[in-house]
Write a structure and sequence with these properties.
Length: 336
């Protein structure tokens, strides 16, 4: 293990690359998951996004089942399911079924953002006020996955008794408060929204209430997201990372396209943007580690020491599949 002893996981955004297809993206995800299992990563999570040309993980539960079918031991899960988009009962049935097929291997991370634009939110046909009752809907979902109740009017079958582990996800204090109140583990989205990282972790830890409900903890458990790009040389890692920077620039400017090919060097790329755009992209990607395996390992150890997180979940946005594989392999060799 690394000196910091934090568990290492992968968050796969299932990127559709420029010149590629969703079919290619899903095949790439399966290949990376199979390698990650061999290299010693503990969790392989995918995130729900909708109406985005560059992301192929909209049907997250289906994709989790597909990846779990093609792996054997690694935990596979959602990082996460955006609960306001779904009835808690349906999520319980979906993940209860996954846990029945793959016992002991399924994780369910829950977020309260829609993960999309307002037009698509309406197309999902859920009550927009659902996010306001996030804690209540999480508790409802936990109830469906808990011990069977023969007298219950509504039962999740499959689902009841599976006790699928639930994580609360967030990028602000709201999710931290819910996770703390319910005694659940908490994962912070510092790979794209790092501003409140330290304060949210503090809120979670100081307000944590131990819980005996399904998935509940005796003590806080935390995870945080990190962008990584690892290559044999620092220059090559920085060149590959320009794909990630272009993707974030697209988010900032409202032009969400497929994941672009690398473009020159970081300084040259960012010089093409306005000062406001450069600042916005820099703020969003502040928790990013780019370099050789030793450089990224040392940076990750420093991040774990500073935050005190129990687990890190890394995401690599290399355009080329082989470069993405190589990045995860180099990091595993250095960290695990």
């Amino acid at each position: 293990m690394s000196p910091a002893r934090a568990q290492l996981n992968i968050l796969d955004l299932v990127p559709v690359v420029d010149g590629g297809t969703a079919t290619d993206a899903i095949a790439s995800t399966v290949d990376i998951a199979r390698h990650a299992e061999k290299w010693g990563y503990q969790r392989y999570w995918m995130a729900e996004h909708h109406n985005m040309r560059g992301v192929a993980s909209s049907s997250t539960a289906v994709l989790i089942g597909h990846v779990a079918d093609h792996t054997e031991t690694i935990r596979v899960g959602a990082g996460g399911i955006m609960l306001p988009n779904h009835a808690p009962y349906v999520v319980a049935e979906q993940f209860g079924t996954l846990a029945t097929i793959h016992p002991g291997r399924i994780d369910l991370g829950l977020g309260r953002a829609p993960g999309t634009d307002p037009f698509t939110t309406r197309a999902l046909r859920r009550n927009e006020a659902a996010a306001m009752n996030f804690a209540g809907e999480v508790e409802e979902l936990i109830g469906y996955l808990g011990d069977p109740d023969p007298d219950a009017k509504v039962r999740a079958i499959p689902g009841e008794g599976t006790r699928v582990p639930i994580w609360i996800l967030g990028s602000s204090h709201g999710g931290a408060q819910v996770a703390a109140a319910l005694g659940l583990p908490y994962s912070f989205a510092s790979h794209f929204a790092p501003a409140a990282l330290m304060s949210a972790l503090e809120v979670y830890r100081t307000r944590f209430v131990p819980s005996t409900q399904p998935g509940g903890l005796d003590a806080p458990r935390t995870m945080a997201g990190v962008n990584v790009m690892v290559a044999d040389t620092t220059d090559e890692a920085e060149r590959l990372f320009t794909s990630v920077l272009q993707r974030f620039h697209g988010i900032v400017t409202g032009r969400r396209t497929a994941l672009p090919e690398p473009s020159g060097d970081i300084a040259g790329l960012m010089a093409q943007w306005s000062p406001a755009e450069r600042q916005a992209v820099s703020d969003m990607t502040r928790v990013s580690l780019v370099g050789t395996a030793d450089e990224v390992r040392d940076g990750l150890a420093g991040f774990v020491e500073a935050t005190g997180v129990d687990e890190v979940i890394v995401t690599c946005g290399a355009h080329d599949h082989e470069a993405r594989l190589r990045s995860y392999e180099l990091l595993a060799d250095a960290w695990l």
